[in-house]
Design goal:
It is built from three helices and four strands. It has about 140 residues and is an alpha+beta fold.
C-alpha cells in the first residue's frame, strides 16, 4: 500500500499580506480579567443585575463584571471597575492595573491600547477576628 504524500500548505511569499486574524472582544476581556486577577489585592467588581438579567443568566453562564472593552480598528480601550483590598494604596494599585492590562493586551494581540480607565468601586474589608473568652 502506497502512502499518500503529505499535504503542503502554501505560505504567502515575502512582501505579500498575511490573512488577518480577528480577535473577539471576549478574548480581550479575558486577557484583562486574568491580568487583574494576578495583581494582589484586586478583583474585577461584579455589576449589579436587574430582574431581566437575573432570569436570563440562570443557565450558569459567566457572572457579569464591571469590565468593558471597546475596539476601534487596531486600537483598544478598556474600562474596568475594581474592588481593592483594605489597606492598599488606591492610586498605586490603579496605575499597576493600567500598566499591566495595557502591556498584556498589546503583547498578546499586537493591538494598540489607547486607554485603560480604572474606577475603584469598592474596598474589601477583612472580617473582624472572633473575640476569645466571651460568653
Amino acid at each position: 500500500m502506497a502512502s499518500k504524500p503529505a499535504k503542503q500548505t502554501k505560505t504567502p511569499p515575502p512582501g505579500e499580506a498575511h490573512p488577518e486574524v480577528e480577535i473577539s472582544k471576549s478574548v480581550l476581556m479575558d486577557i484583562a480579567a486574568t491580568t487583574i486577577t494576578g495583581i494582589d489585592g484586586t478583583e474585577v467588581a461584579p455589576t449589579p443585575l436587574n430582574v431581566g438579567e437575573v432570569l436570563r443568566n440562570q443557565t450558569g453562564a459567566r457572572k457579569p463584571r464591571a469590565l468593558r472593552v471597546t475596539r476601534d480598528g487596531g486600537s483598544v480601550s478598556v474600562d474596568v471597575g475594581l474592588n481593592v483590598d483594605f489597606g492598599q494604596n488606591l492610586v498605586n494599585v490603579s496605575r499597576q492595573v493600567q500598566r499591566a492590562v495595557g502591556e498584556n493586551i498589546e503583547l498578546m494581540t499586537g493591538l494598540k491600547v489607547s486607554a485603560v480607565n480604572v474606577t475603584v468601586q469598592g474596598v474589601c474589608v477583612p472580617p473582624a477576628p472572633a473575640l476569645k473568652g466571651r460568653s
